[in-house]
Structure to design on (711 residues):
């Protein structure tokens, strides 16, 4: 196989070397040192020797890696011993992301990642790393060729248009490209990001995580300063008995919570620094990051669904976060734990959500849409779920101390919570879109274009079946979660399934023929 | 097709689970049918297949339990745990496969594939033909002995990315696969 085409930037070898270093050398040094003595030395040497061929291999791989654009395909040759050629039809590409880690930014290089809709968890093609300039140029070139290829192939149709029509639409597509408009939809400043971090539900989680981490670290006795901090509080309390110990515990809890909060704010600010959402032609572009710079592009017609998330703290402030679900690589990417849809817009005012939605789903009309409630039995089910553990705890603790009977009072807030859960749940259909809502802690509203529906499910648990209820699941090609409507009546759910399947199919056909008409016009 | 829902969606609550799997009719009783249509059943040999696989697992677990009891010092007389596992296996073996068989139904409809299954957790699924990426049939050695095959439908979805209809007659499976492949939306964009 003749190797032609471009190579990656030479920094690739350094970057891979650093990766190996992180995986092998760091454990070697740390592990060896902590094991100590002759064994530690041996471990260090073994890992050191193991890492040498890795760097050599990284260099050989760099030599063997070539890529080029040929017609409407990206062709990548790779592999030192077993040669591999991957041909990616550009028309099939979903996202083209440009990403820069901290070190990559210092070196002036960037990674380019291409994703198609294939179900694998890996990115289909990762060009890591290119010089920043080349990456930007290539991203633009790939986008241009992708759009062109789509026009030429009439990809939206199962039966592609005839040759003459195809050529005409290709011409139309390339003509349209020359006047690509770009307009900024949303820009988040420092204050916005601080608010976003301060009002995320993760703040509490981080606090809990920190507490455990510090405790574990404390157990190992490596971090003496923790004891130095806690000693005065705990030490004094030892002499003062139970009440003081509880007090100290409470102080520590508050301390950790505040710490977690500050960390959450800082993390959000660093992560999403300079967040800008731009509409470029028919794509959404997002750029953000203080140390690691991310720039990703989502073609609008590839958006599978939008999730509007309102955390408990954000709701009274009229703030939300939007997550845009696209088809593409799934989880397993270290920097994006939730898959691709992770916090696309970390913070938006509720009154702006409408216009952002309109930007993504141009044909959507949600004014005056009212959500239909789920079955009223749902509240009872929620309550039962909460009541059982409360009653069990009360029963057991009452055997120990009679005062624990008061725990049964928790049933009152439980009833209120069950009510809130019931009220949060609901669904609606409007102008070819299915909406599903639920959640108390974080209220999630799904907006799913019916033309994007892949499969539909009605799931009935044994408990739901007692009441004749089920959960409707609307599945799209989005990675991660499905839109769920919990506790609808079974017959309503089955009817919804059938209706959504039929209307989704009709909408898909309509979108198809209109896009074809737009192309040939 | 949306208008033709059954007037009374009576649920087959507490389906009496008998040991004897009566030869099943080609379609389900009207009371258990889904919107307007009757569902097709799996091949009756499905029950045998599931019983065999339960038996295999049961024997394995029993052997492990017996071994563990002999090696470790159990407070109970030797063999009690193994016996319990064997009894549970027998119970599952008798009751579950027929119930599972009764719970399974599918129907190839005009514009979609309609499935329902699950003894305890019941799931109804609709796969529009246009969303099918590709279709497989597959059969293991035991399947082949029993004249069975699975049909596996792949979509670009998340939850419904892989949907399998198990234990169809080999001929039925192949016919269904070919029908689905012909109906599927080839090269459809996501």
């Amino acid at each position: 196989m003749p190797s032609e085409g471009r190579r990656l930037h030479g920094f690739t070898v350094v970057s891979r070397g650093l990766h190996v270093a992180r995986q092998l050398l760091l454990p070697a040094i740390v592990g060896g040192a902590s094991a100590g003595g002759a064994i530690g030395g041996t471990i260090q040497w073994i890992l050191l020797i193991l890492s040498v061929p890795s760097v050599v291999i990284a260099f050989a791989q760099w030599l063997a890696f070539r890529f080029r654009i040929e017609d409407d395909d990206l062709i990548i040759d790779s592999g030192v011993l077993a040669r591999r050629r991957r041909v990616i039809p550009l028309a099939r590409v979903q996202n083209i992301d440009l990403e820069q880690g901290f070190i990559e930014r210092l070196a002036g290089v960037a990674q380019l990642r291409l994703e198609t809709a294939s179900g694998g968890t890996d990115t289909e093609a990762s060009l890591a790393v290119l010089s920043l300039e080349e990456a930007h140029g290539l991203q633009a070139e790939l986008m241009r060729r992708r759009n062109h290829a789509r026009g030429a192939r009439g990809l939206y149709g199962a039966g592609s248009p005839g040759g003459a029509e195809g050529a005409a639409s290709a011409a139309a597509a390339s003509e349209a490209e020359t006047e690509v408009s770009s307009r900024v939809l949303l820009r988040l400043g420092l204050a916005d990001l601080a608010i976003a971090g301060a009002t995320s539900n993760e703040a509490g989680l981080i606090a809990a995580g920190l507490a455990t981490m510090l405790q574990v670290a404390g157990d190992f006795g490596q971090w003496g300063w923790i004891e130095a901090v806690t000693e005065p509080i705990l030490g004094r309390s030892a002499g003062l008995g139970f009440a003081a110990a509880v007090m100290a515990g409470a102080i520590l809890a508050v301390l950790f919570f505040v710490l977690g909060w500050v960390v959450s704010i800082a993390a959000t600010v660093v992560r999403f620094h300079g967040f800008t959402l731009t509409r470029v032609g028919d794509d959404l572009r997002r750029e953000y990051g203080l140390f690691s710079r991310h720039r990703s592009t989502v073609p609008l017609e590839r958006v599978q669904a939008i999730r509007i998330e309102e955390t408990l703290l954000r709701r009274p402030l009229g703030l939300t976060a939007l997550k845009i679900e696209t088809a593409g690589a799934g989880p397993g990417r270290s920097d994006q734990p939730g898959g691709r849809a992770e916090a696309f817009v970390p913070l938006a005012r509720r009154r702006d959500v409408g216009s952002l939605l309109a930007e993504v789903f141009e044909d959507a009309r949600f004014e005056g849409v009212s959500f239909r409630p789920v079955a009223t039995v749902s509240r009872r089910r929620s309550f039962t779920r909460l009541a059982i553990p409360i009653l069990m705890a009360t029963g057991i603790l009452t055997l120990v101390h009679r005062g624990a009977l008061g725990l049964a009072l928790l049933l009152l807030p439980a009833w209120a919570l069950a009510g809130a859960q019931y009220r949060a749940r609901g669904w609606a259909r409007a102008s070819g879109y299915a909406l599903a809502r639920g959640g108390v802690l974080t209220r999630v509203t799904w907006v799913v274009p019916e033309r994007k529906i892949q499969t539909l499910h009605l799931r009935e648990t044994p408990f739901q079946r007692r009441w004749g209820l089920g959960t409707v699941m609307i599945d799209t090609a989005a990675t991660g979660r499905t839109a769920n409507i919990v506790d609808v009546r079974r017959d309503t759910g089955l009817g919804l399934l059938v209706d959504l399947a039929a209307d989704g199919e009709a909408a898909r056909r309509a979108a198809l023929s209109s896009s074809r008409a737009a192309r040939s016009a | 097709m949306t208008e033709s829902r059954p007037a009374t969606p009576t649920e087959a609550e507490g389906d009496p689970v008998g040991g004897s799997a009566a030869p099943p009719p080609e379609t389900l009783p009207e009371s258990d049918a889904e919107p307007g249509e009757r569902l097709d059943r799996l091949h009756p040999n499905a029950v045998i297949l599931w019983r065999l696989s339960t038996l295999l697992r049961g024997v394995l677990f029993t052997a492990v339990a017996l071994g563990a009891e002999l090696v470790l010092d159990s407070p109970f007389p030797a063999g009690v745990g193994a016996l319990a596992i064997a009894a549970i296996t027998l119970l599952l073996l008798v009751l579950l496969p027929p119930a599972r068989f009764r719970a399974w139904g599918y129907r190839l409809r005009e514009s979609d594939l309609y499935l329902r299954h699950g003894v305890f957790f019941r799931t109804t699924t609709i796969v529009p033909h246009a969303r099918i990426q590709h279709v497989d049939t597959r059969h293991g050695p035991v399947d082949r002995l029993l004249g069975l095959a699975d049909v596996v439908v792949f979509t670009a979805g998340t939850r419904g990315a892989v949907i399998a209809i198990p234990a169809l007659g080999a001929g039925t499976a192949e016919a269904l696969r070919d029908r689905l492949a012909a109906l599927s939306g080839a090269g459809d964009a996501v």
Summary: Residues 105-183 of chain B form a domain with the PH-domain like fold (CATH 2.30.29). Residues 1-34 of chain B have pLDDT under 50 and may be disordered. Helices of chain B lie at 45-71, 80-103, 141-145, 170-183. Chain B touches chain A at residues 1-2, 5, 9, 11, 13, 34-35, 111-112, 118, 120-128, 130-131, 155-161, 163, 185-190 (CB under 8 Å).
